[in-house]
Amino acid sequence: MSTESQVRADDRAHVFHSWSAQGLIDPLPIEKALGSHFWDYSGRKYLDFSSQLVNINIGHQHPRLVAAIQEQAAKLCTIQPAFANDKRGEAARMIAEVAPANLNKVFFTNGGAEANENAIRMARLHTGRHKVLSTYRSYHGSTATAITATGDPRRWPNEPVAIGVVHFWGPYPYRSPFYSENEQQESERALQHLRDTIVFEGAGTIAAILIETVVGTNGILVPPPGYLAGVRALCDEFGIVFIADEVMAGFGRCGEWFAVDKWGVSPDLITFAKGVNSGYLPLGGVVISDEIAETFRERPFPGGLTYSGHPLAVASAVASMQIFKEEGIIEHARMLGDDVIGPELAKIAAKHPSVGDVRGLGVFWAVELVKDNEKSPLVPYNAAGKDAAPMNAVAAACKEKGLWPFVHFNRIHVVPPCTISVDDLKQGLAILDEALTVADSYT
Ligand code: PLP
User: Fold this and answer.
1) Which residue has a Cα nearest atom 1 of ligand 1?
2) I need a surface site. Which of 18, 128, 222, 335 has the fewest CB within 10 A?
3) What is the pLDDT of residue 182?
């Protein structure tokens, strides 16, 4: 049996995969990766336009990051969370240094869902209130409270799980839930809707507003001008904790350390994971404001994880942040968005009748596909099976040319590593351009 068939056989016999009907999937066996590429066992090379699950911000197998993990492993692999350790403190300090000025403490988790779970717990204990407001177009993770806060269809089969979450509509200029005609109107109407939701739910019952600074999997929805500042103002007015979920948007993805920097807004809690160490080891966390940290000065925080601040994971975060700084990765990501992806996608949009909208910033872009001039989505919301065929055909056309795309419902997200070269990026966009002729055939 070849290695590839052995990998497939073991996988199909014993691995239970996330989000999947186990009998209907055929996972691609991957042997190795480097930079912006990965290879399957037959030697076929793919340009990674997905950054896996939008987490390999620094690229695959960065040698300095690999070496930092090896070095830490040789010294100290694990200690329990109640101890202090050089890399744990250094990682927390470095994250606090790039966070807004009043966020100075970090609670480490193993990933994004746990970060949101604990941020909500902190907000509830800090305010003494129980409700959480989050948007319909959102994903916050698959643990109990995080999946309940999630707005997208992944929540539905899991319900009921947790209580106390109320969903509202965030801004989405292209398909405005408020029938707005421009971004300013969208921002104002979305804020009025949020204010109404707060008033009608009872401000005194609401602990937190949890939003993705830039909505990720649900469409790369960049907040219109004034929106985030407006959310901040509503939180201040009603004594609500503002939690910015930057699990996907943070650490370079938007051409900033944290996406909130783009709008100069300071939330009370920021949740992060993915890009902090590009997922080389599981790591996430919550950056905490001085005011909320103060709540837990004398009073114990009633939560914890065996692997909180795991030495290998935090050592990889320290190395990753050094690499970000020394290699100018944040600036590179910003340049890629401004000078390459934005202009190239605008040309692609002008050429293809199937492209309804392109939007994004940094290396965080969506191409939204439609089948007519009425903006009818190329496939329905939550499409699966036969309904998803047009998007599957576009994805297949990309893969055939060696491009691994990120596809969600009627959108292709352009989310390569923040370190991708201009040449590789242009090559990937050219493949996408060609593949979109398949989408055009459905219009
Ligand atoms: N929040 C956002 C915005 C995400 O995109 C994700 C994952 O994609 C999560 C939370 C959950 O993170 P994890 O899968 O590490 O639990």
Assistant:
1) 140
2) 18
3) 97
Cα gap 165→320, rounded to integer Å: 35
Output the CA 248–ligand 1 centroid distance in Å: 7
What is the model's pLDDT at position 1?
77
Q: Does domain 64-327 have CATH number 3.30.750.24?
A: no
pLDDT tens across 3-53, in order? Answer: 999 999 999 999 999 999 999 999 999 999 999 999 999 999 999 999 999
Residues of the chain with CATH 3.40.640.10: 64-327
Please compute the mean of the pLDDT values over residues 392-416 and round it to a whole number. 98
109's CB contacts (< 8 A; 6+ apart) are 115, 117, 118, 273, 283, 284, 285, 286, 305, 308
Question: Can you point out the beta strands (E) in 241-354?
Answer: 241-245, 269-272, 284-289
Domain 3-61+328-441 is found in CATH 2.40.160.60? no
**Ligand 1: distance of its center to the CA of 110 in Å?**
11
Ligand 1, closest atom to CA 143? 16
Q: Considering the chain, what is the average pLDDT of its residues?
A: 97
| pLDDT the model gives residue 385 | 87
Residue 250's pLDDT is what? Answer: 98
Q: Tell me the CA–centroid distance for residue 364 and ligand 1, in Å.
A: 15
Ligand 1 center from residue 140 Cα (angstroms) = 5
Q: Could you tell me the distance, in angstroms and rounded to a whole number, from the CA of residue 273 to the centre of ligand 1?
A: 7
Which protein residues touch ligand 1 with a CB less than 6 Å away? Answer: 53, 111-113, 116, 139-141, 212, 216-217, 245, 247-248, 273, 284
C-alpha closest to that of 356 among 340, 344, 341, 374? 374
What phi, psi does 118 have (nearest 5°)?
-80, -30
pLDDT of residue 22: 96
Ligand 1 atom with minimal separation from the 249 CA: 3
Q: Where in the chain is the domain with CATH 3.90.1150.10?
A: 3-61+328-441
